Each structure stands twice: as C-alpha cells, then as structure tokens.
Recover the amino acids of this structure.
C-alpha cells in the first residue's frame, strides 16, 4: 500500500506559491502547470473582482528536476491558478454547461498588447483554449493541498 507524500517530508521543498508579472515569469509557471487536469466546474470567472481562477491537479514537474529517469516520484498536488486584472474572457471549443468535463492544461502563453496589457492564452488538450484579455500580467500559482501519488505511477508521456 503506497503512502501519500507530504511537503514536510520532501526536505527543502515547500508548496509552490509563484507570481508572474512578465512573459518570462509566465514561461516558468507554464512549465509547472503543463499536464494539469481539472473539471470545468472548478473554473471560476469573477467579473466584479476581474479575476479568473482555475483549480487543478498539477503534476509536480519540479520533483523530477535533476532526478535520473524513473527515479523521481510521480506526484500530483491540488493547485490554484489565479489571473487578475482581467478585462475579458473568451472560451473556444469548451462546453461551459458541462461542469463535469475534464480539461487537460497544456500551456500558458502571453501575447503583449498596448501598454502592459495583452492576452493570456490557456491552451487545453483537444484544441480548446481560453483567451484572457488582461490590463497587465498578474498571475499567481499556489499549491493548496498535499501531494499524492499519481494514479498512472509515472510522469505524463509526450512522445506517445
């Protein structure tokens, strides 16, 4: 019987709490949320707060950094991705009425616009995407739970 991992058992590792205010910052967060999965019902658009929040089960890629192949634990952790200063949200290829639909987040990217604003694109598997128009790049990724062993027992495979 396997035991779930705990952050306090991971030595220097702590729950992630990262902020992105530049395209370079966003690249780092994009690499950490690659292959995160969640349900459409866990996506919240809060227009009065100008905030979009996605709750997800994130694969812990940082646990694999520098580890020999097959030696790092395959873990997921509950995380929240919050995008602030949002002006508009557009969804492409997403049935917003199906709250149980599972999404697989592939990447985040930023296309600059005028001044500090632009568009954050959340690319999902299957050709779906969110385009989030922002006044400025203001994004936060935070782990909100303890890690657990991934059901597949291995890292997602991009060669298949």
């Amino acid at each position: 019987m396997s035991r779930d991992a705990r952050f306090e058992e991971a030595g220097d590792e702590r729950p992630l709490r990262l902020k992105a205010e530049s395209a370079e910052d966003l690249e780092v967060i994009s690499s950490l949320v690659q292959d995160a999965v969640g349900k459409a019902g866990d996506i919240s658009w809060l227009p009065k707060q100008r905030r979009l929040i996605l709750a997800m089960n994130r694969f812990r890629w940082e646990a694999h950094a520098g580890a020999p192949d097959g030696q790092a634990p395959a873990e997921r952790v509950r995380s929240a991705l919050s995008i602030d200063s949002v002006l508009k949200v557009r969804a492409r290829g997403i049935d917003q009425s199906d709250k149980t639909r599972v999404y697989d987040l592939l990447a985040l990217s930023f296309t600059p616009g005028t001044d500090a604003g632009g568009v954050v694109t959340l690319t999902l598997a299957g050709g779906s995407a969110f385009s989030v128009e922002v006044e400025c790049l203001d994004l936060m990724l935070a782990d909100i739970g303890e890690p657990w062993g991934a059901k597949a027992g291995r890292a997602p495979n991009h060669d298949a």
